[in-house]
Structure prediction request, 295 residues.
Amino acid sequence: ARPGGRMARAEPPAATFERRVLRSAAEHHYLRVRLELPDGGARPSVAQFKQLVVSALRELHGEVGAALPVDVLTYEEKTLSAILRVVSSGLVKLWSALTLLGFYQNRRCAFRVLQTSPFLLALSGNSRELVLD
Amino acid sequence: AALSRRYVLCEVVSEDPRCRQCIEDRAVGLAVRDAIGRVHGDYGLACCSISFTVKYLNAYTGTVLLRCRKDSYRLLCSALPFVRQLESRSQRHPCFLNTLHVGGTIRTCQKFLIQYNRRQLLMLLQNCTNEEERRCVQKSLLSCSLTEEQSQSGDEEDDGTE
Prediction:
């Protein structure tokens, strides 16, 4: 009676390696986003930025969406870019809510998602903004 | 089967006896839609509204049968506890919805409703306080029968002494 595992072959040799495949096992997903406010008005602070994200979720996905655990890890007021962290199961809700957000305090705005990854380290380099000299 | 639907059977429970006149299909449909919009947002509202109707309503017993798509019945069921009041003719009465049964066809919901009503009548009989009520309930229990046109068993209702 051999315990059936992922490698249920006839007779495994003396174990040299074991392969485990985990699909979408990361707990959180990270998004680097930039808010575009074409009119040169007052820039939102970090609290107002988070309020904007949560209100976008509330509009599209209701109270259930607004209760999604979203964190703003970094925020730069000058460039209006931020790194958001969300539970992996809520990535689709967050991304769709950011896409469909059109107004901030009655001013036209748009969210651009620059990078996304299940690993925070991957957001440190962006080959699109690489400058070759 | 290409188009699958789910039928959700619930009952409207309220302490206010005047709420019974508020129970109509438009009022209940609007209240449920409003609750879905609050809890699940624009996306949830649009998802559930595709094939959403109030299929059957009984104001005496407060039984409501809702229909929705199979893909979105979970959104509907999770939003039903958030219905707090019914509004009709500019009157609003507080109430809540109790989910009794979720079925795939109207027929299964009807079978369940018949059994449920039978049990409710027996419980009413047990909880009767005076002899007069007892005789009334017994008479109607013995007189109700299933005719060919599927008459609803147990339509007789107490006078709000629920």
About this structure: The beta strands of chain A are 28-36, 70-76, 81-87, 103-104, 107-108, 110-117. Residues 28-124 of chain A form a domain with the Alpha-Beta Plaits fold (CATH 3.30.70.3250).
